[in-house]
Amino acid sequence: MDRKDLEIHESPAVIKHLEFLQDLISRMAANSATCKKWTLTIVTGVIAFHYANGLPIVFSIIPVVFFFIFDSLYLGLERRFRDLYLDFVRKLKNGELQKEDVYNLKSGFNSDFYYQCLCYGARSYLNLGFYVTMLMYTIVFCIALW
Prior knowledge:
By secondary structure, this protein is mainly α. The chain contains 5 helices and no strands. It has one domain (3-145). The chain is elongated, with a radius of gyration of 21 Å.
């Protein structure tokens, strides 16, 4: 590694760009975990409210579906930002990094992009396991309490 390569690797702009991508990835992972927490909390609250006030238990299915969609989107976005991060590091390592690559996050963010992220996240075993289990428990409660 010569001096020019070292200057590029240690450039404050490159370091900040990588930190920025890492923060986005961490935020998406935290949002995904928060969706699961809120799903559990709201479904439990609706079931408890059913016992206290007779709220139809069927309403507990709505947050499961709603948060499944959001959680899938967050997982898909996390994956996409991880791919951007790895692509940037690969370019940096191979000496292919251009000036335009720094702080460039344009990667086809359109409705098709979000649909692909949603589909990727929906196929996640973690998501499917959690939300299918929550949906099954909710349906069992609906049938048992109806």
